[in-house]
Amino acid sequence: LLTDEHKLIRETARTWVKKEVTPIVEEACQNAQFPKQWIKGLANIGAFGPTIPAEYGGAGLDYISYGLLMQELERGDSGLRSTASVQSSLVMYPIYSFGSEEQKRKYLPGLAKGDLVGCFGLTEPNHGSDPSSMVTNIVDKGDYYVLNGSKMWISNAPFADIAVVWAKDESGVVRGMVVERGSEGFSTPEIKGKWSLRASATGELVFNNVRVPKQNVFPNVKGLKGPLSCLNSARFGIAW
C-alpha cells in the first residue's frame, strides 16, 4: 500500500534511529537526559513539520509520510517521538494554520531546520484534560498584551526557544500566541523525577507579567478550536 517514496522515508528514519538513537537511548533514559544532538538529526530526516509546504521550510509530504516518521521514531523511543510530535503538530501546525504570513516566515523555516525548538502551552497545573477551565490570561495594554499564568507537563519546555501559548483574553475567549524565550517574566523550570518519557525534557511555563507584542498573537483563530485542532494533528501521529 506504500509508495516508493513512503518506503524511502521509512527506511531513512529507521536507519537514523538505529545508528543515532538505539545505542544511547538506554543511558539517556537512565540519566533522564535528552541528547541535544537528536534535534539536528530529526531535522535532517524531515521529522519536523513534514506536511508543511516547502516554501516555509517543510518537506511538503502527505500525512502517511508523517505517520511513518512518527512510527519509526516511536520504535526508537517514545520521548524522541514526543519531541518531534510537539515540534510538528503542536508548534509548526498552529503557526502555519492560524499565523500571519509574517509569523510563518519568521518561525517555520528555523523550526524545520532544528535551529529553533518549540513547545506547546495548554495544560495547566489544575486544569489538564479540561482546557476550557484555564486561568492563564492576557490583558490588552494597547500595542501589547500582558500575559499571566502557568502551564504544566510541557514537553521541550526546558530548552525551547519559543512557546505556542493559549490564554483567555478579557472576554474569556481563548487566544493563541508565540512567546519567545528571553521575554522578561517568562521562565521554564524543568520537571524532575519522571517515571516515563525520561529521554525527553519536560517542564513548566511560568508567565509573570510577560509582555507579548500584538504581532505575536495568531490572527486567524479564536476559541478552543485552535488548541484542539493541534491536538487532533498530534493524535494522528500518536495513533501511528
Structure description:
The chain has 240 residues and is an alpha+beta fold. 41% of the residues lie in helices and 20% in strands. It contains six helices and seven strands. The protein has helices at residues 4-31, 38-44, 63-76, 78-98, 101-113, 225-239; strands at residues 118-121, 137-140, 144-155, 162-168, 174-180, 186-187, 202-213. A four-stranded antiparallel beta sheet has the order 2-3-7-6, covered by helices on one side. Strands 1-4-5 form a three-stranded mixed beta sheet, covered by helices on one side. Helix 1 (4-31) packs parallel to helix 3. The radius of gyration is 17 Å and the shape is globular. The mean pLDDT is 97.
Helix-strand blueprint:
Layout: H1 4-31, H2 38-44, H3 63-76, H4 78-98, H5 101-113, E1 118-121, E2 137-140, E3 144-155, E4 162-168, E5 174-180, E6 186-187, E7 202-213, H6 225-239
Parallel strand pairs: 1-4
Antiparallel strand pairs: 2-3, 3-7, 4-5, 6-7
Helix pairs in contact: 1-3, 3-4, 3-6, 4-5, 4-6
Keywords:
single chain, 240 residues, alpha+beta, 4-stranded antiparallel β-sheet, 6 helices, 41% helix, 20% strand
In short:
Helices cover 41% and strands 20% of the residues.
Give Rg in angstroms: 17 Å
The mean pLDDT is 97
Q: Output the structural class.
A: alpha+beta
Low-confidence runs: none
Biggest pleated sheet = 4 strands, antiparallel
